[in-house]
Structures are given as structure tokens and as C-alpha cells.
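ok, trying the design again with the full structure, not the truncated one.
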């Protein structure tokens, strides 16, 4: 689940599939591999773990992309996560489908309607440059339920705006869930703002050919009255 919005804090994934690309579709296969070390795993205002390693791998061709992303906490009690995302982007427009899986339930190959720990989510978004808008909806697996036990297809809308200030790259983020569901915020009723965040990133020069991105992020969740301050390194 995406993650400390590295370029979802990128890709609503760590590898920029969930985030729209502003460049034309590439004409050759491109691949990338990386990992983040984070002091806490906060996703859409939800506390999902403590210090974690979050690896990523992606391949892209002509606007299509396939990525894998994971999270493994340093503490034995932390949930392990493995996500796969198939996406397409052109100009500022992007669409994607993500399969989220967690290890604290049925095993990976259990896909039953009432026997699965997978969540399938669709995303559509547009990056206007000064503002990116993304909508996410769960459509299969653990889709979210209301207080009556009905499936609600939990959804999330995120707005993010990048800017530069004081020699650092910044990103302001606001996210909300539009209707009642138990997937976010412990089942708060109706519309709820789940995240108000500000993130700063700096490139540390290690050698003439290698820089190490360092980021820090302050996050508030008005719906749960939670507040978090996290930092990370991107390798």
C-alpha cells in the first residue's frame, strides 16, 4: 500500500505507476529497482508498521508498466505486504490496477470471495503539474463494509501539490474517503479526511555520480486524530 508517498510518495507506488507521468510514452523497455528504509509505515493516514524496508521493482514500455512493491517491518509482529500494479500513463493521465496482499490472514493463493487477504484496487488520475488528482476504489477482495455489513467498495481521493522552497523539494498532500467503510479510519461514518501531510526531500551527494535522497514527512489524520512524523532513505 503504498507507502510514504515517495514520488503513493510517487507511485501511489514507490515506483510511480499510481502517479501520473508527465513525459511521453517511452519507446524502449525501461526497468528500475530500489528500496526505501523508513522510520514508520504510514499509508493514507493509517499506521501500518514501524521501521520497515520497502523494496520495489518495475518495468515499463510505451506507457504500460508492471511493478512489484513490498514492505517488511523490523519487528516480528509487523505485517508483511506484497503488491503488484499494472498501469498505463500518457501525458498527465494515468490508470492502474493494484493487487494488495498481507500475510496476516489466508495464504497468498486464496482468492475466495470470503477467504482472501487480497484487495484489488482501481486507480484513475491526472497530473496537471501544479496539482495531481487521483481516485482509488476497491473492487474485489476486501472491498470494505459499512455498519450494516454491506459491501461499500471503499474509495479514496488524493490531492498532491509539489513545490520548491528553501532549496528542498516539497509536496503537500490531502486525502479523504468519500463514504462510510471499515477499510479506512477504523470505520468512521461518511466522508472523512484521512490525511493532511507535508513532505520535504533532499538529495545528499555521496560521490560525483551518486546521490542519496533523504525525506521527512509530517502527517495528520483528522478522522482518527492521529499525528505522525517519519523519515526515510531511498536507495
Amino acid at each position: 500500500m503504498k507507502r510514504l508517498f515517495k514520488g503513493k510518495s510517487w507511485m501511489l507506488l514507490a515506483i510511480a505507476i499510481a502517479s501520473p507521468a508527465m513525459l511521453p510514452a517511452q519507446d524502449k523497455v525501461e526497468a528500475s529497482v530500489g528500496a526505501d528504509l523508513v522510520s514508520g509505515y504510514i499509508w493514507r493516514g493509517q499506521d501500518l508498521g514501524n521501521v520497515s524496508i520497502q523494496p520495489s521493482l518495475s518495468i515499463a514500455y510505451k506507457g504500460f508498466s508492471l511493478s512489484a512493491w513490498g514492505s517488511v517491518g523490523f519487528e516480528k509482529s509487523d505485517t508483511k505486504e506484497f503488491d503488484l500494479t499494472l498501469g498505463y500513463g500518457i501525458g498527465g493521465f494515468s490508470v492502474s490496477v493494484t493487487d494488495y496482499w498481507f500475510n496476516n490472514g489466508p495464504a497468498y493463493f486464496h482468492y475466495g470471495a470470503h477467504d482472501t487477504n487480497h484487495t484489488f484496487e482501481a486507480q484513475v488520475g491526472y497530473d496537471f503539474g501544479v496539482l495531481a488528482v487521483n481516485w482509488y476504489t476497491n473492487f474485489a477482495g476486501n472491498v470494505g463494509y459499512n455498519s450494516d455489513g454491506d459491501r461499500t467498495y471503499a474509495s479514496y481521493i488524493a490531492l498532491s501539490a509539489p513545490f520548491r522552497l528553501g532549496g528542498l523539494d516539497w509536496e503537500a498532500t490531502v486525502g479523504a474517503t468519500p463514504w462510510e467503510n471499515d477499510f479506512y479510519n477504523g470505520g468512521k461514518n461518511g466522508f472523512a479526511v484521512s490525511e493532511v501531510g507535508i513532505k520535504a526531500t533532499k538529495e545528499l551527494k555521496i560521490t560525483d555520480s551518486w546521490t542519496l535522497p533523504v525525506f521527512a514527512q509530517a502527517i495528520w489524520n483528522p478522522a482518527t486524530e492521529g499525528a505522525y512524523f517519519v523519515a526515510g532513505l531511498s536507495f
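Keeping the full-length input from now on. Confidence is low (pLDDT under 50) at residues 4-23.
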